[in-house]
Each structure stands twice: as structure tokens, then as C-alpha cells.
Amino acid sequence: MFRFSKTHYASEALGLGEGSRVRLAGWIFRKRELGGVIFIVLRDSTGSIQVVVREPEIGPSQLRSAREAGLESSIIVEGVIRKDPRAPGGTEVLANSLEVVGESDNYPIRKGAGEEFLLDNRHLHLRSRSMWAILRIRAEALRAAREWFDSNGFTSVEAPSIVGAAVEGGATLFEINYFGKKAYLTQSSQFYLEAAIFSLENVYTIQPSFRAEKSRTRRHLTEFWHVEAEMAWADLNGVMEVVEGLVGHMASAVAERGAEELEILGRRFDPPDTPFPRISYDEAVDIAKRKGVDIEWGDDLSTEAERAVSLEFDSPVFVHRYPKSAKAFYHMPDPSRPEVVLCVDLLAPEGIGEIVGGGQRIHDYDLLVQRIREEGLNVEDYKWYLDLRKYGSVPHGGFGLGLERTVRWIAGLPHIRAAVPFPRTITRVTP
Ligand code: NSS
Q: Which of 92, 105, 254, 330 is 20 to 30 A from residue 234's alpha carbon, by CA?
């Protein structure tokens, strides 16, 4: 572990014995003065510790700087560890010196600040205890995802963010002016992963995807982190097995390694058992109808329908075989029931709804051309994608998992924008 400007981090200092000498570097989280003694709670990336600042040890000039330093000033403190049952954690530092490195006057974030204000000040709000916990949970979820793929024989591949054609339909495409020609921000790396399976067979990527989502919801961002995988020779069952392995590992890794962070958020999270239940779209529609949701066979599952279904289960649930009309052109029709496709969504419990979408792809050239035409798309735009069906095509499948939706579920967050450091939504591109 690197220790710049410090001998210990706050959490390490808490474990030291009486009389140990330390040099800590961090920020003033809290401060109060009692009878000429200043009590500072110093915060760093690992936690916090109380620092006791008194004139006899540090002299009048440093005492004055400590008194004048506002919340969130950055400081370097040298001192001695004291065990005192009155201190938080039973340990404090008696300061011999205190240097204010960066002043902070009138730190704008106060208790009770409104939601919009906090979003406008996200660059500062990241320092809060709750954002600290969320960022750590997100990092853990990402680490777990990579760890799972890397230890299960998947190779990571990177795809471009600037692309020439839609993957998930034109309605949510962000158009950019690419030297006078139209180009788009990618909605999914799926087609590039499909190309890569012919070389590497089982592949994954973790990178941003973009959707010009015009709706304000609790589960849509315009830029989100997409965990995607593609597997040569896999059918729909194979896709579900991979999703189950990945999501199961992400959930249990965060539950175990992020226990402290979940507790800070007041979140009780028990990782779900596998296998996850599997139901058909038909069954999902029946459940939603029974619960009073307005839905007809053929409609995509609305937010309310997904919510109704997900509340029926206390673990994530797979919903497979949606109507062809509700899904993108590349999904493989079910040979025994051509009106539905071999796709699958994973709905997270507690009403969260879809966190994964995927399925088996069409690997037959003629059928893919027919589906592109039926959807009114331009075959020319998909020329290279069609090539993959011309030269040694194989059955294959894959999926995409929304990182923020998954973190929202695991961390129990009310809104998806809490799950990303700097959210991008229909109304927000700053900070
Ligand atoms: O549109 S998806 O359902 N499917 C795809 O993009 C496939 N091309 C992925 C693949 O098979 N490789 O999106 C997949 C997931 C979805 O379940 C959500 O969890 C997430 O991506 N997603 C989003 N998260 C946040 N905001 C928005 N707007 C969003 N759109 C999708």
C-alpha cells in the first residue's frame, strides 16, 4: 500500500497501541471546540479518527490555524496515539503538529441538502460517507465481474465507442457528426464481441454504452457501464448458465467484501441462491395481469410489469422467449414457436426489474437478412455483421448486464443515478 505524506491511514492508526507515533493526512470531517481543546475528526479513504489539538503540544500559531480551518480543509497531523474510551473507536491522536495543506471556506454541502443540489455538487458530494460506500461497492462489483470472467476462460476484448449503425434500434441512438458523415455512440458492443468469438470463442468487455433515452426514470442513464459477454457454440441455456455464474459471483463477492460499505448504507443484502428461477414471457404476462398490470401478449414488459413479476420472487428471475415483435432483429426465433425468440432478460428482485438482456443470436445468413429487412433496416449498414454468417458461422449467444442497475439492486439504492460517480441523464451533463 502506498503511503504518501503519511505513516498510517486512519483505520490503521485505530489499531495502534498507546504511545505510537503517527503522521496522518486527510480532511476535516467534523470539528468542535471544548474548553480550549479542539477535537477534529480526520477523514481519509479508509475511515476516520479523532485528533485532539491543544496549545501545550502544538503552540498558539498552529492552534489558531486549526481553529480557523473549515470543514473539508486538508490537513497533515503528527502526533501520538492515546487510548481513550470517550473517543470514537476508543483511540485518538494527540497532535504535536497540524498543517493545513488546503483551506476550505464555507464548504457548500450541509446536512439536509436537497437531491438536486447534491447532484449539482456531485464533484464534492463524492466525499460523503454514503458516496464513499457506493463507489467502493461499485468497484467491488466491477472487480468481481472481471474476476469471474478471467477465471472462467473468457478473454477481454475492447470495442469502439464510435460506430456506424444501431444495435438496439434507432430510437435511442446518439448521432455525432463524424467529419461530415453520420456516426453514432455505441449502444452495445455486442456485434464486435460476435466478431471476436470466431477468434477467441468466449469473450467479454466492460465499457460504456450510450442511449438517448428520452424518458426520466429511476433506471435509465444516457451513459451506462455495460458488462457484455458472447460465447461461441452457446444456446439459450448456455447464456443463462453464464449469467447465473456471473451475477451470483458479483452478488456474493460484494456481500462478503463490501459488508462494511453495505452496513454504512443501512442495506441488508443476502446474496441469492442459484440456480435462479426461469419463467417464460407467457408466464410473466400471466403474473403481471393477475397483479392488475395493463398488458397484452405481444407487448414488451413495461416497468410496472417487470416490477410485478420481480416482486413474486426473492431472487433474480430469468424471463425467456419474448415475442419477436418486442425484441431486436438479431434474436434467434424459437424453431418450435417462431412467434417468440430465444432471448432472456434477468429481472432483479425487490421491484428493480431488468438488469441483464441477451439470448441466442441468429447465425443463419438468409434469416438474418430477412429479419433486418422486416425491421425496415438497411442491409448495407450490417454488411460486416452479415459476413460473420458467411464464413464459418456457428450458433452463439451472449448478453449485456447494466452495471449501475446491478449496483442499484445490490446496494438498495432508490435511483440509478446514485450508482455512478457522475451520472448522465436527459437533463444532466455536468459535473
Ligand atoms: O438493451 S439491452 O437489454 N441489450 C443489449 O444491449 C444487448 N445488445 C446486450 C448484449 O446482448 N450484448 O441492454 C442490456 C442491459 C439492460 O439489461 C440494462 O441492465 C442495461 O443494459 N441498460 C441500461 N442501463 C442504464 N441505462 C440505460 N439507458 C440502459 N439501457 C440498457
A: 254
Nearest ligand 1 atom, CA 403: 19
Three-class DSSP category at 37 = strand
Report the chain's terminal Cα–Cα distance, integer Å: 30
pLDDT band, very low/low/confident/very high, at 214 (cuts 50, 70, 90): confident
Residues 278-286: what's their mean pLDDT?
98
Choice between 422 and 217, residue whose per-residue pLDDT is larger: 422
pLDDT digits (tens, 9 = 90+) for 224-252: 999 999 999 999 999 999 999 999 999 99
Top mutation candidate among 172, 197, 226, 424 for ligand 1, by most atoms within 8 Å of CB? 226
Q: Nearest residue CA, atom 21 of ligand 1? A: 402
Output the DSSP codes for 112-132: T--HHHHHHTHHHHTTSHHHH
Q: Specify the residue with its C-alpha closest to ligand 1, atom 24.
A: 402
CA distances for 75 relative to 41, 50, 63, 264, 344, angstroms: 11, 13, 13, 25, 52
Domains, the chain, with CATH or none: 10-102 (2.40.50.140), 119-419 (3.30.930.10)
Q: Quick one: pLDDT at residue 37?
A: 97
Measuring from each residue's beta carbon to the nearest atom of ligand 1, which residues come in under 6 Å? 167-168, 188, 190, 211, 213, 220-221, 224, 226, 228, 354-358, 398-402, 404-405
In tens, the pLDDT along 17-38 reads 999 999 999 999 999 999 999 9
Torsion-angle region of 412 (φ positive above 0: left; ψ -120 to 50: alpha; else: beta): left
For residue 278, the CA-to-ligand 1 centroid distance in Å is 19
Cell numbers at residue 159, please? 470495442
Neighbour count for residue 381 (Cβ, 10 Å): 13
The Å distance, Cα 345 to ligand 1 centre, comes to 10
Confidence class for position 333, pLDDT limits 50, 70, 90:
very high
